[in-house]
Amino acid sequence: MTQPLTKSFKQLFYYGLIGIITNLSWYAVYLLITSFGAEPKLVMTLLYFCGATTSYLANRKWTFQHKGHWVNSTIRYVIAHIMGYTLNFLLLLIFVDYYHYPHQWVQGIAIFIVAGFLFITFKFFVFSENSNHQKVDQK
């Protein structure tokens, strides 16, 4: 029973490390671009997809050590990020546009909310153990 728990903590550690490096970098770019007056949701949209693309290989290889077919995991990864992006967009829409909180704070908090959602989604949907052992039809 400790083996799965240890594996999950190791995955969470690598996911966090990759996330800190990529999210701090992209958040700094977000703050820079929005400081010039760019619309926050547009900037988040562009940077979200840049961040998602750069983190795919790292999470597939190091965090979850996924050995399943890359096409299948890529499709599930895109689905997970569409949901993560939607969550991020809604947080900005609700808390910035309707409640008028500063976008810098909302986006900073949204990074952690979306990251938690994505870790669970990656672990159990995108890079799950079951997808490592998919059968290939042989003719």
Helix content: over 70%
Query: Can you write the helix and strand succession as a string?
Result: HHHHH
Oligomer: single chain
The count of DSSP E runs of length 2 or more, i.e. the number of strands, is 0
What structural class is derived from the secondary structure elements? mainly alpha
Taking pLDDT < 50 over at least 5 consecutive residues as the criterion, the unreliable ranges are 135-139
Number of helices: 5
Shape: elongated
What is the terminal-to-terminal distance? Answer: 39 Å
Strand percent estimate: under 5%
Mean pLDDT: 91
Based on CA atoms alone, the radius of gyration comes out at: 17 Å
Give an overview in words:
The chain is mostly helical and about 140 residues long. About 85% of the residues lie in helices and about 0% in strands. It is built from five helices and no strands. It is elongated. The N and C termini lie far apart (about 40 Å). The C terminus is likely disordered.
Main attributes of the structure:
disordered C terminus; 139 residues; mainly alpha; elongated
Give me a quick take on this structure:
The protein has 139 residues and is mostly helical. Helices cover 83% and strands 0% of the residues. Helix 1 packs antiparallel against helix 2, helix 2 packs antiparallel against helix 3 (70-98) and helix 3 packs antiparallel against helix 4.
